[in-house]
Every structure is written in C-alpha cells, then in structure tokens.
Amino acid sequence: MTLPIAVCVSGRGSNLGAIIDACANGRLNAHVVLVASSRANVAALDRARRAGVPSAEFAVTRATRAAAQAAMARAIREAGARLVVLAGYDRILADAFWDELGDVPVINIHPSLLPAFGGLNGIRVHEAVIAAGARESGATVHRAHRGTLDEGEIVVQRRVPVMPGEDAEALAARVLAEEHRAIVEAIALFGAHPAALARP
C-alpha cells in the first residue's frame, strides 16, 4: 500500500524535493498528498506546484499560530495523510494542531545528532558543533510529540565527520546531503512497517 504523507515546510524545500524525487523514481512507496507551509511565497511551494502536489499556506504569526496550525492539521487529515513530515518547518506546533491531528504520527528532521545540539536551528546548529570541537555531526529524524522540541524517539540517524578547519556553511552543506537520505529512509521505514504508525 502506498503511504500518503503530508509535508510541512517553511522555506527552500530541499528536503521536500528529496521526498518528491524519491516518490517519483520509486525509491519510496509513498506519495505526498499535501504540502503545508507556514509562510507564503517560499521556494518549497514552487517545488510542490512543479511536481503537481497539492499545497496550501497556513501563515503563522504569534497571534495566529493556534488557529493557523489547527487549520493545517484539519487539511492534513482531510487530505488522508497517514504520516506528517516536518521538513524545515520553523514553528513550534501549538496544542491546537495536535488536538486536530488526532493519531496521525509526526516526524521531524534535525541537522545534528540528537540529543546533541537540540533546540537550535539553521546555521546556529553547525556553528555550535564547530565551537564545541565535536568530531562528528549529522542528521536525525525523530518522532515529534505535543509539548516537545527536538525530542522523541529517534527513527534514523546519519553521521558526518567534522573536517579540520571547515566552517559552518561547509558543514551545513554536507549535513544537508545526509538529511535528504535520512528523511527518505525514515519515511520508507514507516511505509514498510505499518505498526510504526501507531503512537508509541
């Protein structure tokens, strides 16, 4: 059975592109039923439209977060998604989102070897890795749950050595390549093992 997934985005859509490509070339037995964005006019929405994937904007501000995310969760359920993938989604999910979503599982991609450097995002993760003198970094896909941030059961981790003298941008580029692999691998695991879709 092909796994229907929703992908939540906020920016360039790099991981979304990896997912769409993997669905198209048969590496993933899944299809994206909805791309939901927290921002208007981002590259991820263009990527979805080029692929013919339904997409919608649920613009989030501090004042509208709960209502926008509740609407997003309703749209995800109505699209028939059985897995939600946070692929660069840059907002904390409000209780209203979880209330509306019900039992649909959620996974998130983070550019570090969690639990190390959790709570950071973007280039700040890689700057912190280098500042700490870490010898390796990587990408983690984990379950996401109400009231948590960069926590939850680890589904997939992929490791990347930190090269001597490299800067945060260079490390970020190498980690991103592993993010693309990790997110596809994690979705494939859920598709191959339907029991994993149940709440832990």
Strand pairing plus helix content: what structural class?
alpha/beta
Can you tell me the number of structural domains?
A: 1
What is the CATH homology-level superfamily?
Formyl transferase, N-terminal domain
The end-to-end distance, rounded to whole angstroms, is 22 Å
The low-confidence parts are none
One letter per element, helices H and strands E, the order comes to EHEHEHEHEHEEH
The residue fraction in helices comes out at: 25-40%
Strand order across the largest sheet? 3-2-1-4-5-6-7
Mean pLDDT: 94
CATH architecture: 3-Layer(aba) Sandwich
Strand content: 15-25%
Structure, described:
The chain is α/β, with parallel strands linked by helices and about 200 residues long. It has a single domain (about 5-115, about 140-160, about 180-195), classed as Rossmann fold (3-Layer(aba) Sandwich), CATH 3.40.50.170. The chain is about 40% helix and about 20% strand. The protein has a 7-stranded mixed beta sheet with strand order 3-2-1-4-5-6-7, with helices on both faces. It is globular.
What labels describe this entry?
200 residues; alpha/beta; Rossmann fold; seven-stranded mixed beta sheet; 7 strands; 38% helix; 22% strand
Entry summary:
Helix content is 38%, strand content 22%. It has 200 residues and is α/β, with parallel strands linked by helices. The radius of gyration is 16 Å and the shape is globular.
Which secondary structure elements does this structure contain, and how are they paired or packed?
Blueprint: E1 3-9, H1 14-24, E2 30-37, H2 43-50, E3 55-57, H3 65-79, E4 83-86, H4 95-101, E5 106-110, H5 123-131, E6 136-143, E7 154-161, H6 168-192
Helix pairs in contact: 1-6, 3-4, 5-6
